[in-house]
Design goal:
Layout (H helix, E strand, L loop, with lengths): L4 E5 L3 H13 L3 E6 L2 H8 L6 E5 L8 H12 L3 E5 L4 H8 L5 E4 L4 H82 L3 H17 L7 H5 L3 H11 L4 H8 L3 H15 L8 H5 L2
Helix pairs in contact: 2-3, 5-6, 8-10, 9-10
InterPro entries: CheY-like_superfamily, Sig_transdc_resp-reg_C-effctor, Sig_transdc_resp-reg_receiver, Tscrpt_reg_LuxR_C, WalR-like, WH-like_DNA-bd_sf
Protein name: DNA-binding response regulator
Keywords: Coiled coil, DNA-binding, Phosphoprotein
Length: 281
Amino acid sequence: MKDLKILIVEDERILAEDLKETLLELGYNVAGNVGSGEKAVELASKTEIDLALMDIKLEGELDGVNTAEVLRNRFDIPVIYLTAFSDDTLLQKAKKTEPFGYVIKPYRASEIKSVIEMAFFKIEVERKRKESYKNLESEAQNHANKLEKMDATLKTLMEYRENEKNEAIRNVAKNLNDRVIPHFDTIRMRWPNKELNNLLDALTTTLQEIARPSENSLSDSINLTPMECRVVDLIRQGRTSKEIASLLGITVRGVTFHRGNIRKKLGIQNKKINLKASLSR
């Protein structure tokens, strides 16, 4: 990790030069040696820096803590503080910048080395953590993109199948109207009979109901029985209970029973609501 670049920020120039010599002797790469927070920020904007050794009490508008905060927030540069005294207030303020360590002046080369090595270790751990998080984030995004594509494909297939189904239903309806229902008119003309005409009317309505798209089918939405479906078709035609009973071959009481079940499934039981009107919505 000796190739990582270190910035020295120390306003006592003799100490700064001495520290630079020490770092070079220890084999570290010194990226810069400045005497103020302003110059440190300026250099950081132009040069790649991995770690800053910061005098905690710099002269000027930017003291050591303020400079460390700027370097951390703007350039993501970690800091080791250099301090000749222990001011509790200043140390509490310094903690908020999350420093990678402290070195007390006057310092020994061995102490400098151990603190820097620990800082470099933390930097490497943090780098790997960020890289791992970035990879996980990228992998999660890839999975999300795949799921989005699969969802879009599935929707397209469903729409295609729905269109095919509706097209088939339209073809059935056309064939009924063109080839089947005209024969009912022929039967009415050849064999005029009121009961037969009623049956043909009911059959016509039922066939047309079957040939409609089923997504809004009443029988599906409220779970009608086959007999209830037939009663519903005849109620929609405006048939009376007596006529329905005759057409379906059941008693009027049976029709009343089915009407009651249909009203219950529609949620209008014991309400003064017209059943035919409800079925026509």
